[in-house]
Specification:
The chain is built from six helices and no strands. The chain has 171 residues and is an all-alpha fold. Helix 3 packs across helix 5 and helix 5 runs antiparallel to helix 6 (147-169). The protein starts with a helix and ends with a helix.
Length: 171
C-alpha cells in the first residue's frame, strides 16, 4: 500500500511540474492558412520548384552500381519464381515436359542475333550480380574502401560482367 501511495505522489509531483507545459498555449499572430498562403506565394513568385525531383541529381557511380545490384537481385528472384511456377503449372494447361517445351521454342527458329540477345538478356544480370557480390565481399574484408578503389572496382565489375555475359551468350 505504501508503494502505491508513493507511486501516486510521485506521479502527482511530476504532473504538477509538467502542468504549465501541457496547458500553455502558443499565441500566433496569424493562422496556419495565412502562413501557408504566404509560403506558396513566395515560392510561386520566386519560380522555385515545388520539390526537388530525383532526375535533377547526378548519383555517384557506387550508388548507381548499388541500385543495379539490388535491381538485378530482385529481377533474378522474380524470374526464378516465375520460371518455377510456369514449369509447375504448364503441364496442367499444355501436356508435355521440359524437353517438349524446349523443342517447341527451337521450332520457332530464332535468328542467331535474336538468340544471342535473348541469352545475353538472361545472362547479364547473373554475371553482374555475381561480380558485384565478389566486390561486396572484398569490402566486407575492408579491402578497397577508398573512393578511388570504389570507382576502379566498379568499372572492373561492369567490364568483367559484360565480357563474361557476352562469352556465355556466345556459347
Amino acid at each position: 500500500m505504501a508503494l502505491l501511495a508513493r507511486s501516486v505522489c510521485r506521479n502527482q509531483l511530476l504532473l504538477r511540474q509538467l502542468q504549465p507545459c501541457l496547458t500553455g498555449r502558443v499565441n500566433a499572430s496569424s493562422s496556419w492558412k495565412e502562413d501557408q498562403t504566404k509560403f506558396w506565394d513566395k515560392n510561386l513568385t520566386g519560380k522555385r520548384p515545388i520539390s526537388p525531383h530525383i532526375t535533377i541529381y547526378k548519383f555517384p557511380m557506387p550508388a548507381m552500381l548499388s541500385g543495379t545490384h539490388r535491381v538485378t537481385g530482385f529481377a533474378m528472384t522474380g524470374g526464378v519464381i516465375a520460371f518455377a511456377l510456369g514449369m509447375n503449372t504448364l503441364p496442367f494447361i499444355i501436356p508435355g515436359d521440359f524437353t517438349s517445351y524446349l523443342s517447341a521454342v527451337q521450332a520457332w527458329q530464332y535468328g542467331p542475333i535474336l538468340l544471342f540477345l535473348t541469352k545475353f538478356y538472361i545472362t547479364w544480370p547473373f554475371t553482374y550480380h555475381f561480380m558485384n557480390g565478389i566486390r561486396h565481399l572484398m569490402w566486407d574484408m575492408a579491402i578497397g574502401l577508398n573512393m578511388k578503389s570504389m570507382y576502379s572496382s566498379g568499372y572492373a565489375v561492369v567490364g568483367a560482367s559484360l565480357a563474361l555475359a557476352i562469352a556465355v551468350a556466345a556459347l
